[in-house]
Amino acid sequence: MIKHLVSIDDLSKKTIEKIFHLADIYNSQLEKKEHIYICKDKIMATLFYEPSTRTRMSFESAMFKLGGKVISSADTKSTTSAAKGESLIDTIKVIQSYADIVVLRHFKDGSAMLAAENSDVPIINGGDGAHEHPTQTLCDLYTIRKLKKRKIYGLRVALCGDLKYGRTVHSLAYGLAKFGAKIFTIAPKGFELPEYVEHRIKSEYGIEIKKYNKLGEQLSQADVFYMTQKNEPDLFPRLSIEFFDAVYVTRIQIERLKGVKTVSEQTMSYFINKELLEKAKEDTIVMHPLPRRNELAYDVDQDKRAAYFQQAAYGVPIRMALIAILLGLKKLKFGVNKKLPEIFTLDKKCTNENCITTSEENAQNKYIKVNDLANTYRCFYCDQEQGI
Question: Please, which residues bridge with residue 250 across strands?
């Protein structure tokens, strides 16, 4: 049994399918406007140190629709005792006395794992720095399954753009690998998929990621296209290829680029619009986790293949299912995909400057041995690999 959801890799393929099945049931009940009171005596806390629209509000909506209550902190970093220097560990130890389940979004990589270690109530990762966003991946996979009406196994998926800082693509890559998808990446220099993500996918799932530098090199054969926004000059070539079976668009993570405060609106070279979509197949779906900037034109909204608003809507039944399962209100086995690895406590700080261990004094230096790389360990919190 698992008590928290920190990473998409926490969930077995079978468990994800069960979550989808329960989400189908809740989605049907919502469409029929049926009342659900399974959480009538439960309280959920949403603790958000970073901005959010869809994740926070869909979780809160999900809890209300389950008959529960919500206490919310939408700007935790500046409106709570965090502004006075309170540690995440202390905050969690206090909040667990007020709520039965906590949804946490934090700007530090690995914060959700640290919170889970110090909480007696379930912790759900609503996005931790540039690390992971597992519930978004559940929404993404669920949307693909519902709209493509096929299994994910064998699906050719392209992840393109800011693959370094985009936590959604990290979780999605793990999720796709779990279901046996074929993964492609296209990224400009400096925005490639982190080596630790690629290495885990290869070593744990046996999937070789096909990497390209330009969109036109190979993507006409892909089934899903996960694209990130171009905000700065010369990041991407002009999109000039035909579309494929699905397109996943998302913005560049400008807030994680040090020293960059503004983005160029005039020199965009990576753009999805109605004209380009005319080249797509009839069953192509266009997805976007939102928010969008200028990478996805509004004229796409009216196309029947535009799936991003439906994708956002699916966040409610998916998160209803997660809440019900984690609170033990639905007797489904919520299990991991593999045995827990051995954890080592070493006298060495994580080299990732944004790791939660660099700012939390009480966080231990925990690592997992990378068996196929000599003298290499993976940080227990942020997953980044480092030689020791």
Answer: 228
Catalytic, 55? Answer yes
Given this model, what pLDDT does residue 332 score? 64
Higher-pLDDT residue of 201 and 226 is 201
Q: Give the confidence band of 339 by pLDDT, cuts at 50, 70, 90.
A: low
User: Is residue 64 predicted with pLDDT exceeding 80?
Assistant: yes
Residue 1 lies in a domain: no
The CATH number given to whatever domain includes residue 196 is: 3.40.50.1370
Q: Which of 133, 164, 305, 366 is catalytic?
A: 133
Residue 288 bears catalytic tag: no
Q: Which of 54, 69, 202, 293 is an active site residue?
A: 54
Point out the catalytic residue in the list 15, 46, 55, 76. Answer: 55
Domain that holds residue 12: 8-132+313-326
Q: Say whether 105 is catalytic.
A: yes
Residue 331 lies in a domain: no
Q: What is the pLDDT of residue 296?
A: 81
State the average pLDDT over residues 108-112.
Answer: 96
Task: Give the model's pLDDT for residue 221.
Answer: 52
Number of domains in the chain: 3
Q: Which of 33, 35, 84, 149 is catalytic?
A: 84
Q: Is 33 a catalytic residue?
A: no
- Is residue 133 part of the annotated active site? The answer reads yes
